[in-house]
Design a protein that fits this description.
The protein has helices at 68-78, 104-120, 136-147, 162-168, 177-197, 216-225, 277-288, 309-312, 321-331; strands at residues 23-31, 37-45, 52-58, 82-86, 124-134, 153-157, 265-271, 297-302. The chain is an alpha/beta fold. The protein has an eight-stranded mixed β-sheet with strand order 1-2-4-3-5-6-7-8, with helices on both faces. Helix 2 (104-120) crosses helix 3.
Length: 333
């Protein structure tokens, strides 16, 4: 039997962005194929009629739906789409025990379960469904698009390839067998320590207090996750982070292997000044290399934007919502 777990959901508006008077909002739940119940905020354009095009949104990796994925979802609903922003398995208001674990497989399934939910929603046209993945969920979105033929259009915003950064370190600085061996050995040792302690040790979220000599990308994260701009009490990145062994399986499971077989439309958006820009550029190159389906693929680089500027728009409304609207309108016909 497929059963949806009963979860205790917050009823107050506790987002990091203002509530729109242009959309109707409610919380919904659905179950993935591992039996984990996921929680989402659903946004529907007010006074909409007929079956609507729909978009599922998630990310960043370690964030919750009350942060930027909700902002994307609510804004796209204002522009005519039925949208959901969901918490991935083991995080936020979604189910799954133990908490604060991640999985390339389960997290890809989370997106597919969101597509299931939208496909069966009476207000949605099941032939007009797209997805948006932000940061680490941008990579997940591409992986999902390579697997789920129901998805007609995908946006990856300020994306990370979480398998690459776990295996190779930031900027590929640990891309060697010895460095990977040491990381794997440390996590294997931590597994036993956790079992002996009877609980999983947290790896820590964004560093706080911020060191004066912190690199720019750490300051960029701090400015979002640890300030009023983006802090949320249920966000892993704002607080204690993932478990130390939470992302262990990402070490040897590349998620972007078959992206050059994606037939549906894909738009990759990245900031010119984002430390993560190399992920977006390389993902686009690999997606289009030796591919028969390049006509509907696009890489859009936003001038002067940092990584987190595409979380909430930064100080200059950097998120290209007009472009997102036209992209989805064109490809969710």
């Amino acid at each position: 039997m497929i059963k949806v777990e009963s979860l205790n959901l917050v009823t107050d508006w506790d987002k990091t962005f203002p509530k729109s008077d242009k959309v109707d909002h409610e919380k919904v739940t659905f179950v993935n194929r591992y039996g984990i119940t996921l929680t989402a905020d659903m946004y529907v354009p007010k006074n909409s009629e007929g079956k609507l095009p729909a978009i599922a949104v998630s990310g960043p990796f370690g964030a919750v739906k009350e942060q930027c994925s909700g902002l994307y979802a609510q804004t796209m609903a204002e522009r005519g789409f039925l949208t959901i922003a969901f918490d991935p398995s083991f995080t936020g208001e979604s189910g799954g025990n133990v908490r604060y674990m991640a999985s390339p497989d389960i997290n890809t399934e989370d997106f597919m379960a969101a597509v299931d939910f939208l496909s069966l929603n009476e207000k949605v046209d099941p032939d007009r469904i797209g997805i948006i993945g932000i940061c680490g969920w941008g990579g997940m979105a591409l992986n999902t698009a390579a697997l789920d033929t129901r998805i007609k259009a995908t946006v990856a915003a300020t994306m990370y390839d979480m398998t690459r950064v776990n295996a190779n370190g930031y900027f590929d600085s640990e891309d060697n067998e010895e460095a990977r061996y040491q990381k794997k050995a440390a996590m294997c040792a931590q597994r036993l320590e956790d079992l002996k302690a009877g609980e999983y040790k947290l790896g820590g979220g964004v560093v706080d207090p911020l060191p004066e000599d912190a690199p720019f990308f750490v300051k960029d994260y701090y400015d979002y996750y640890k300030t009023d701009r983006g802090y949320h009490k249920r966000s892993l990145n704002s607080n204690g982070g993932w478990n130390v062994i939470g992302c262990e399986s990402f070490m040897n499971q590349p998620i972007l292997k078959y992206t050059n077989e994606i037939r549906s439309a894909v738009l990759i958006i990245h900031g010119e000044k984002a430390h993560s820009l190399y992920f977006g550029k390389d993902a686009y190159e690999n997606m289009t290399k030796d591919s028969k389906y390049t006509a509907n693929k696009e890489l859009m680089i936003i001038q002067n934007a940092s990584h987190t500027d595409l979380y909430d728009g930064g100080d200059s409304n950097y998120i290209p919502f007009d472009k997102l609207q036209s992209f989805f309108e064109e490809n969710l016909k």
